[in-house]
Amino acid sequence: MMDQKQFDKIRAVFERSGVALTLVDMSLPEQPLVLANPAFLGLTGYTEGQVLGLNCRFLQCDDDNTATRAEIRAALAAGREAQVILRNHRADGSPFDNLLFLHPVGGRPGAPEYFLGSQFELGHCKAGVGAVIGHTDQLSRELSRIGAVSEHMEMGSRRQLAEMAAALVRAWESRR
Ligand SMILES: Cc1cc2nc3c(=O)[nH]c(=O)nc-3n(C[C@H](O)[C@H](O)[C@H](O)COP(=O)(O)O)c2cc1C
């Protein structure tokens, strides 16, 4: 089990981060949010009090994300990282396309205690592939800080994360 000190460290990294970060407790029924940082609240327009304790699917409203949701459930069940794109809605009802990064945190390999989620809004202010790579760089640094990757995230796996995200975004752009 993660001790309080480690949890507080994650909270401190979340508070300071410029990228949207959320932490979900995988041991609780419904996999609720236990942390949501200021960048996530800014992106979605919700307050912390409105979101903590909820499963993050509340952002989907009635959108048909069937295939993507199945992909997420499979990754969560296997305890492995994933990147997906989902249609979400802000508190004011406005839609956005969310490039979601999921990373296991704590626990055992294949059975993490938590999952970290990072949300990146696609399609605003010409936020193209370059902006996505900037996001993955920052996310990689935060993952190293909280110890979600052994020691420092290897350069190779950083690049791999950036490349996977860029490929996903290019495919998404070509479908629009
Ligand atoms: C850490 C974490 C962050 C998540 N963030 C989002 C999110 O920002 N938007 C979203 O639509 N779903 C998000 N999800 C996915 C949903 O919580 C849920 O796992 C997904 O919809 C699949 O489950 P379901 O088919 O039971 O809804 C997140 C999941 C986790 C574990």
Automatic annotation (TrEMBL):
Keywords, in A-Z order: Chromophore, Flavoprotein, FMN
Gene3D superfamilies xref list: PAS domain
Pfam families documented for this protein: PAS_9
Classification via CDD domains: PAS
SUPFAM superfamilies linked to this entry: PYP-like sensor domain (PAS domain)
PAS domain sequence ranges: 6-79
Keyword Flavoprotein attributed: yes
Protein's UniProt keywords contain Heme: no
Name of this protein: PAS domain S-box-containing protein
Organism, scientific name: Cereibacter ovatus
